[in-house]
Structure formats: C-alpha cells, structure tokens
Amino acid sequence: MSGFSGAGGAFGAAQAWDPTATGAAVARLGEAREGANRAVLALRSAPDLAVAPAPGVSLTGLRACGAELDARAAAAQALQLELEDLQRDTWLAGRSYEWASDAVRGLIEQVAGSVAYALGAAVRTAALAAAPWAVAIGLVVVPLAAKLLLMHPELLASLTQRAAAAGTNLGRFLEDTSAFWERTGEVLMANPAFTAALALAIESSDEALAGLLGIPLPLANSVESRIGDDEVLGLLALSAAGGAGLLSGGGRVQAVFSRPVAPPSEPVTEPAQAMRIILEQDEQVTIAEYAMPDGSTRYQVFVRGTETVAPSGSSGLDMRANLENTGAAGSQLHGSDAAVAEAMREAGIGPGDAVDLFGFSQGAGAVANVAASGQFRVENALLVGGPVGGAEIPPQTAVLSIAHEGDIVPALDGWADGEGVQTTVIESAGGHGSGPLARHSGEEYVDTLDRLDDFAGDAWLARIEAATAGGEPISGVGVHLRRR
C-alpha cells in the first residue's frame, strides 16, 4: 500500500495525535480506508470457487458467485484507493488553508503591534510633555501606594472619606463601575469579535510597552522574532507576577500537605464526569492511582481553577499564579503549574508512569504546562475554559481543549504562535453564570460537556477509554496548594 508523509507520520502508519479540524478529517478518512482494506482482504481470502461442483450444485451458480466475489473485491480495492487519494487531498487542502490563515493572522498581528506601539509612544510623549519626571515618579510612587493600601485597609477607608469631603464619591464610582460591567460585560464577552480583539490586544502588549519605553519598533520586532511572541508575552507576564509579588508579598506556590481520599471506582474518561470531580473535590488537586491489567500503574490528576484574586494563606490558585503560569517555558514552571508537578512527584508519579490530566480554568493552564514540560508521560489531557493557547504539548499527548463562546478566560493567553493547544469553541448550555464571567461558570461547563457531540471529543474519548480499560483503583490523595 502506498503511503503519504504528512503531519503526524505517513498514512498507513501510526499517527501522532492531531486535534485540528484537518487532523480529525484525515483520521476519519483513514479509518474508512482501513475498513475498505479489511473488506478487500476478507473478500480475497474466500475459498476459490473455480472447482468442480459437488453433486446437486449448479456450476453456473458457482461461477457466478465467484465472479461476484471478484467484482466486489475489485470495487473495495477501488474504494480504498479513492479514500487514500481523498485523505491526501484533504490533508493538503486543510494544511493550505491553515497556512494561509496563519499568514493572515501574522499580518493582523503586525498591524496591531504597530498600532499598539504608536499608542504606547503617544502615552509616553504625553506623560513626558506634561511632567518630565512623571513616569519615573509613577514607577516608584504607585507601587508603594498600592503596597500601603494592601497592608493597611484603613488607609483605603480614609482615602474614601477624604474623597467624599472633597465632593467625590469614590465608593459610588466603584459601585457604578461594577454595575456597568455586570450589565454589559456578559453582552460584550458573548461577542466573538470582542474576545478575539482582547486576545490580540494582550498579544500586542509587548509592542505597547516598547512604545512606552521608547524602544525603536524595528529593534522590538527583531527581539520578538528571535525569541517568539509567546516567549515575549511570557517574560512580560513573569515581570508582572514579580511586581505583584513585591506589592502583595508571599513566595512561590507549593504543595504543602495532603490527605487520603477515595479514588473513583474506575478511571475517569467522560469529560463531564471529570468536571464534576474538579468542582466537588475538597482540595485544589486530587490524584488517583490505578492498577492496570498489564501490571503497570496509571495516575489521574484533577486541578481546580482560580480561587482568589490576592494571595492568601488558604489557596495558591491566585491571579498572580496565572501570570506565573503564562511565563512557563519548556520544563521551566513558575506558578501553580510548578506546584502541581511537585504534588505529582510527591504522590509517587515517576517519569515513566502513564498520566491523565484534567484541569479547569487556571487548573487547565497549569496541567497544560505540566504536559508541555516533558517531566511526565502524559497520555491524555482535558483542558476546560483555560488560557492554554501558548502551551506546546507533545503530539503524543491526546488533548481535548474546550471553551465556551463568550468565555473571556481562554483569551487571556493572547494569540498563540500556532504550535500551541487547539481549542474547540462551543456554545454554552447556559443557565448558571451571570455577568462578565457568565460563560466561565463551571456548572455550565458540566452541562455543556454532558451534551458534547463533536468528532474531536469522540476521538479523544475513544483513545482514553482504550488506554484506561480495566483499571482498578489503588489509592487517592488530595493535595493543598498554598503560597508561602
């Protein structure tokens, strides 16, 4: 049989996991081609009917039956060749479209970057014209003021009182702002153009910063081309996380204690079931261990989403950890992703043990980075409503990434370079969330996943079911994440 070399290997050979629309179509055509090939083999393995018939058997009928078998084998062979041609053409057409799409996206990013640079430069010019030392003073005064307000809430109350005495109702302003977002945020987020624009704006933040600092645009573009868009964004995120650390205090996120929990009675395969476990588990991370029929051990890891904005003693899943996770590069993990990897090692997971990862929101970003780090043998990953576009997960890992239309959180990772996670955007089941983060509701994701009907989801489900069949529970542990 002839083969065709493409993404993920040659047709007719074992292919790496490809969750793109092109990959899904090629995989389905490959299944059909293999079915036709099996039909050809079955028809050609039938006994030769060109023999002398037994008494009472019609020679004409016997020859007609043999001719029919030959005709059907030839038709199956022709169908097989047609499917192989169609598979090849589908791959070529799909990849051509994706390459063209990437070129258009690159042009849009270039234009947006130039606009962002111009805006940053305009802000810098205006600030320096108004007060030459305003920028320098602001870099010192603003962080110190924020630090004082965080350390002494009574100062904020005093500031509110002084604003009221001066005729400015600061509390009313904050209330009106909150009410505005509560009224209009859900409508804005439901518009795909808005979320796409937000992702593009985040991706262009490096050009805006270059303009603000007065760095020549060609130099900024040269640095970005050498390092990569996602890497530059990651460095900015790490810088912002470091600034947040100076303002709020607290060290890195750590897996600080654990306790035994009952593992599910069998390995989890259904996306909706995994989401229920994530929402209902007592700790931020749950790790279940299973004995497989072949004598190996399999682990499944479930990670919750952001629980607090400011760092606290109760949870390390804070907003600063989101910034730290964005700064992940290869095996270098910095935030809650590093704590998840730490928890996995403490649970006894070795580099050669099979692992399935499940995460929601920040948890999705954390487990995506763990899978991309290469520290563990991650075979399957379910990522729900998370900023995961920049994670370059190896093709051997089957990834199902799901996001609701109108969910702003996945857009916070910016526009990926093209090598990151491919996310399937689907309509929410609705009925639970409200406000700007309405479509990020975990309960809505449970309902949506319950009715999920998508080829990528079917292919992922088939793969994880085959990999986990026959697993028997051994133990489970709940791990607490805290910033210390």
From TrEMBL:
Gene3D superfamilies per the UniProt record, alphabetical: alpha/beta hydrolase
Superkingdom of source: Bacteria
The name this protein goes by in its record: Alpha/beta hydrolase
Source species: Agrococcus baldri
